[in-house]
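Example record

One chain of 935 residues, shown exactly as stored in the release files.
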Amino acid sequence: MEAVSEEVLDGKWEDLDWAMGQCFMMGWEGTEITSQIRTLIEDHHVGAVLLTTKNLKGAHQTARLVQELQTIAHQAGHPVPLLIALDQENGGVNSLFDEDYICQFPSAMGVAATGSPDLAYEVSNATAKELSAVGVNMIMGPVLDVLTNARYQPLGVRATGDDPQEVSQYGIAAMNGYKDAGITTCGKHFPSYGNLDFLGSSLDMPIITETLEQLSLSALVPFRNAIREGLDAIMVGGCAIANAGMNVMHACLSDQVVDDLLRKDLGFNGVTISECLEMDALSHDIGVRGGTVMAVEAGCDLVLLCRSFSVQLEAISGLKLGVENDMISRDRINLSLTRVLTLKSKCTSWQKALNPPGISLLSQLHPSHLTLSTKTYDNSITVMRDTGHLLPLSNTRYADEELLLLTPLVKPLPASAETRTLAESKGVPSEHDKWNHRSSIMSGENVFRELGRLLARQRHGKLLHTSYTANGVRPVHENLINRAGCIIVVTADANRNLYQNGFTKHVAMMCSMLSSGGKKKSLIVVSVSSPYDFAMDKSIGTYICTFDFTETAMGALVRALFGEFVPQGTLPGTLRKSRKVQKSRQHWLVENWNWDRDNRGLQALIKALEKTVLLNQQSGLIGASASAFSLPFTSAEETIEESHYVVRNSSTQALFGFCSTYYHPASATGMLGAIFVDPSKRNLSIGHSLHQRALRGLLQKPRIKKLQLGCGLPSIFLGIPMSDLSEGARLKRWFATNGWDISSPRLLYTLTIKNLSNWAPPEGLLQSIQRVSFGFDLIHGTENASSVLDHVSAHASPEIQGLYQLALTDPKTCGIVRAKSPVDGALVGTVIVCRSSTLLETYMPVLHSDGSEGVGGILAPVVPSSPQASIVLQGLALLGIRQNKAHRCATCVLNWVAGEERDVLLSMGFDVLDAWEELSSVSERVSLMSSGADE
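Predicted structure tokens for this chain:
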């Protein structure tokens, strides 16, 4: 930030025109510098340029063009270099293509199909190194959209898939790959293009109809996680949002979306970039001048205008007018200026900007990148089904049989060498097509003609090849199908190009009828874009997915068809998981926990789980450590037996899952303390396997009578969480299926006073407590502790007894407040009070302090039922609060509050921090249910 501070002090930034220039990202059409882009840089001080396929002819030309842009900026007196950005998502969305120097890699979904986040990192790192070599310093990626409704969304294979955790995992891997190559990142398209409704005319915006709660549980998860990991910038989409809590015409123009949702709720402090304001719907509804002002007011730091010079000038004049009319403050402009300059300081300098290494570096990188490309494409090829065992073709088809290839007329991918010279279609695009990447071009014949040539060369036999259209199965197709022994039908987004679906089903029916008549016809369907075309249609017996149809992908497909390698790809997202569950409802190998071996793996697992917690939610996991699960009792004091289990990768020592159990002999109660599963490995039966092993271990205890789900010591998983209702409902169903009684849960709460210094007791509370004449005192250590332990033993669960034992062994930071009867001096209530840095923090992460402020604890009140129980509880809490304030704690946490006690304490000024449902079952019921689940 020091460099940025100096740049902000540069006199030029005091000039409004110079400061505003850093608030725009602009583009132009043409492969040479035009007067348009020169004027924007020299006269209007525009500080960021977006390059597209219309600017780029190859690596050498791109490096020269970028260098010329930076030279113009330097000579015009720009204090810092230009931000040069482009789309290079791989698969079909590559703005820069050069078959001699720039490598082709799979789409985001194709990379995810490899099942390897490490490959995602390597591919992104290689891509970024190539872009950096030609002078580009920002990539418009990664795509962080979750395909909530994957089968019908225009993003298709540009997105990782439909599972938010998997999208997060691969998105962050890609982001780190870019950043480690020195390029800044821009996640897109916030809040989501993954479930758009296309309802109106060509001028209407596609609409997000999901509620904020639904978005928070799915679409926003990858953005939230990427922000935590250091995402540099975010592009805010131009879609509309219409739900009960929000009615937004254009997301990138709405302060509800940019300032409230992205900045405040998700905590993003980087650069926000608007969708291009030249889109028809926006310019028609609002106008670019007003739209520019609204985008900046909403919180956008860079306003994107891709093409028209007149529109770009209109936007610049609009922003200046907005400042002059006091609609936008100078401080607001300076805030965006500072963010943009901070971003530039991460990725560029004049030395770097004016001297791109270009072809010399690309020549060195190219051989290793080609190897990586081949490896990634081969690993991405996915055989969804091969029920007839037709693969590989080299083993099943005789040389004298004819092979028929049927391919559709579709949009090829702009990275295709065969299609670089084709003209853009002049046809009217569909509403979905407008939301596909703008550089797609028409006519896929050449791509698939090359596929046919590859097949013919590989097979050394006769190949028949023709295309099909919306006209369906014609006589020419019928004749060729009759001749061929094996038919390969290629589809590309058949769910949106329905003629492909109908054609393929018709061919499948013909092959079935001919085969039943004695003429054996083998059918292979290959999806070369969206894998969802026939993913769930088991009538297509052999189904292969490639995730894009570049020449590189087609080469990998041919090698897979003829057995040069065995395809290992799997469909990303929920389809991958559901398929694995179907294939392997087997129990995972569960091993006993070993501290030396598994401690580091558990800590990593906890960190991975922390990232899935919503920012506005609490969790016992936050701040937890692996040490929490090993309780510190000596053999003389031990009242708890513990057994913990893991599912792990024995090769890498990574933990896929962890389960903790505790047994209390005195009460014959077994407790399931926690089940953790790696977010990327959920729905694969890992939790089921751990649960079964844990129950088996507990039910072997000779005297066990009761099982409890949720544990107070350690206080990490107290039961089913109620802070997330949908997740809580799902977990309750799961545990009910596995034998737990969900009909009468015990409700437990964690309460808090967040600003303790401003708290005052409610009016009349002190008088009420004094009126009943209970005696209250505070003790530390084991002296006088016997009466406390007797009281807790008689009225509380075993884990609460253990917690009191721990508190008594830590007199420096813990004490016990006692309430005594005025009649006979007998104890009528106790509570633990602790201050910051207590030893209990290890076992109760809710007490964890980040160092900036102290957290005081009031823990485990034990107040037997009586007419005066409420006033006793309030008296104990009041003394606890006073102790916390005396120790200058900024926050007070009251943990392990039973449901019937909650309202009494809320009336004192506490708020609910977290809530849980503790479940229990008699051992016989769970024993019967678990044995049934095993079967």
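Notes: The first strand starts at residue 24 and ends at 26.
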